[in-house]
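so im writing up the methods section and need the F-box domain-containing protein record in one place, dumping it here so i stop losing it
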Amino acid sequence: MADKTRMARNKRACIRDLPQELCDKITEEAINKTVNKVTIHTLRALCRVNEQFYRSATRLLYRRVHLDFEDRGRSSLTPISIDKFSLSPHRRSVRHLMITCLRIRDDNAMVRLQELPILLARLPGLRSLSISLARSKPVIGSLSKEREFVNVLHQSLQAYGANEDSNLDTLRIFNPHIPLFDSEAIHDTFNLSRVMLSLRRFEYVDQIPMDKKAQIGIFHALQHAQKIEQIKLESLGRLQEASFSLLPDNAPLRRLELTSITLRASDLLALSKFKNVLEYLSLDHISLTEGSWAEVFHSLSTYTCLAYIEFYCYHLWHDPQTRFAMDACMQCCRKLGLRAISREWSWGRERTCSQYVWDREDWVVCSGPDDAYTSLTPPGNLHLRQSGLQLLPLEITSYAQTNEERRYYKDESWDNWSS
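--- predicted struct ---
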């Protein structure tokens, strides 16, 4: 019995003698560098080992914090109270903050939201901020309450930017359902310059119809983003003012994804200032009010760093000049080292399959309906042959969930960028 007691005492002494760096590595290996419901229990157990493991575990336990404003404790990765957490020493460990269910139903919801600027101002290590209202559409009682909601969100970002240690890397806003960046809020976006200066990734996804009021204020805010590298914009409405021309000329923009936006051809032509740095371009359901797609494709053929282009604009293939311009663009981009091209064809009815065309040297992807392959030569194949690409036999695969599959592959890399 005495021997067992002595061994246990020596074991505890050995653990206490471990250096902090080794405790950090042991903790990371214990959770396999992931944070989920299982590893949270592991981290909480490590917090009770000794002081060294407590510091190692809490640093990872509070790295990702999920705040649910409707039910704080039900689905949060780290159930906390905002006012208490803003005074806790664990706040310095937060790197990724996700806020969901910001509903404007009563005055109590607005009171809880007022705590957000205080919290953000006390998170010096925050690198990624996600604000999501995706669970349900918020109920807005009046225009004044809607504007109050917008002001609080802007004040939250301004409060974080006022911190000298602020260095926000990623900002994501999902399904706000209200105009956070419309023309009336442009004067507020200039106050976000401190946050935008360090921003490298920006994502704004909404469900506003393409003919509704545009969120032009986004570009007024992004004009301060000198370090921006990736931008993803979806459902901004109808852009009737200058947009991409407001982006900084020297920004290292490498990836751009645009979905369900109505704009002018001149707005896309303004992207030519990034032709020596842009590597990935996705245009999905884009409508032009002025100009033509032909001049857009002619401009894209001069981009020297493009490695991947994705187009899904179902209405533009009826114009022969547009198809010819796109084929010329593809041929020029291939000579410049393009690795992948994705084109999705629409024939006025629901697509049932996807056709993948593999090139021996480069990767080329085309999509079209099943009967287009079995009954006639798909326009995609014809144009690829005219461009001089060597094709292999087509592989027909099921395409029952077209939108879901396409969004999965598009969004996969965004999740990796913020990890």
